Target: DUF5658 domain-containing protein
Amino acid sequence: MNKNILRPFKTAGHVLANSVNDLALSLRCACLYNRTTRTAIRGIDPVQFKYFINTSLILLFALLHTADGIVTYFGLKFNYATEVNPILIFFAGTMGLGLAIFALKLLCVEFIAVLYFARRNINGGWATVSLLSADAFYSWVVSNNILLVVGA
Model:
């Protein structure tokens, strides 16, 4: 096969690949440049800001778990509501209600503490979005439990 026939296609492919790489690099530099200028105007380092947001979201998640345990205990202790969590029902039957809620919430808060101490390793934006969505969901759970206990 004649190499001269394939040479223009190979050259065109290299030119196209190089131009796409150059475009991607220029867009990436533009995004980083805009990101730094926006944060420089506010006077906030983006790494410190993300660290502060992740820390706040993790602590809020721990507080929501604690509030859920307290509201669940009062709701079940005074027969305002029924429990639908089969794990809590099983442990409440074997250990007692207060100890079961305390043990399960302590286990959850321990996992949150591990997440809290590893928060410097949270690099991606999706992890922050996941923390935010977990907080939003658990806020709904706690508010629903409060409405069930107060409304009953």
Observations:
- The radius of gyration is 26 Å.
- Residues 3-42 form the longest helix (40 residues).
- The chain has two domains: 1-43, 45-151.
